[in-house]
Amino acid sequence: MPSSSHSADSLKTEMSPAYGTGTLSDVMPTALAALGVPGADGGLQPIRGELEGVKRVAVLLLDGFGYHLLGQAAQASATIGDIQGGHIGTLIPITATVPSSTPISLASLATGQTPGRHGIIGFTVRVPDTGDLVTHIRWDGSPDPETWQPVPTSFELASADGVVCTVVSNGSFRDTGLTRAIYRGADWFPAATPAEVAAETISALSRGERTLVYAYLPDVDTVGHFHGIGSTQWLDAVATVAETIDDILTGLPPDAALLVTADHGMVNTTEKLLVDEHPDLHRGVESIGGDGRMRYLYTAPGAREDVADTWKSAVAGRAEILRREEAVERGWFGPVVTESNLRRIGDLVVVCRDTFAIVGVEGEPQHLKRLIGQHGGLTAAEMAIPLWAYRNG
To answer: Which stretch is the leader sequence (predicted)?
Structure first.
C-alpha cells in the first residue's frame, strides 16, 4: 500500500464547512455574478479579481483532488507546481460540503446551495416516505429527480438570463437521476477521456456571447480508490489531468476565465470495520446509508440509544457517533436544513476518524471492501479542496 501523502495534522484535524465564504456551494454563485446574472452573489472574494470583466467561465472539477495533495501532485506536473507556488493565477483553499463525497459535492456546486437545502445530503440515504434506499451515484430515476432536488440549478438561473450553459462529461452519465437533478438548464457535450474533456470544453466556451461551462474528470478519484493516493498509478492520473488543464489554457478565449476545483480530498484507509462480520451491529438498525467514512444509521423506533451504545463499542474510539440533531446543530449541512431533507439523514451519524472506514454493508458492491482511498469524513485531508482561478489576458 502506498504511504499517505498527508501530514498528521490533516488527518487529525476536523474541518467544518465554510458555508457562505468558502465552500463548493459558493463557486457557481461567484461565477454567475461575474457573468452578470441578476441576484448572483458570490462569496469568494479572493478570486473576484481573476473574474473581472469576463464573458466566459469554465469550471473544471477534478474528482478527489484535495488541497493537501497538491504538494505530492506537483511531483507529477510542472503546471500543478506553478499553481501551488502562486506563479500563475490565484489559488485559495476552500472546503467541500458535508458529507465530503461526490454526489453531495456535485449537487452543492451545481446548485450553489448547501446540502440542507438541495437535499442530496448523503451518498446513500433512505427515502422517508417509502423506506427505500437511494444511492445517488447509481440513481435510476426513482425517486423523481425534479422533486427530490427541487431548487433551481445554477445553469437554470444562468440560462434564464441568456447565458449559454454546457456540461462536459462522460456520456454514460447523461440520463442518470443525478444528472437530471443537478444539471438541469445545461446542454450536454459528451467526453470520455481527459483529452476529449479539454477539446469539448474549449469548443463549448465559444458558444454565445456569455458562456458557462462545467467539465468533470473522475480519473484521480478512481485511481486513488483502487491504488491509493501517492501510488504510481495515482501520480500518472495526476499528470494526465494536468495535461487537460494545459490544453484548456492553450485554447482559452481572451475574454474567458478557468476555475479548477475538486469535490473532496481522500484518505488512504488502514483500518476497516466489516459490518457483515458483526451481526450485533444490525440489532435495532432498519437500514444503513452514507458511505465508508460517514455512515447513516436508520434505527427502529425506540432503539436509537441501544444502537448508539453497540456501535460505540464496535468503533472503539475510531469514529464519533452523533444523533441526527447534533450533526445538524454543528452546521455540517448548512445553516438551514429543510424538514423534508432532515428526515433523509440517519437517526445516528457515524463519522470516521484518522484512516478508519466502515464497509461490508449489505446491498453495497463487494469491491468497496477493498478500496484503499476513501472520503466522506471531516478530516482536513478530505474537506480541504483547492480553488484555482486563471483569467486569460
So the answer is: none
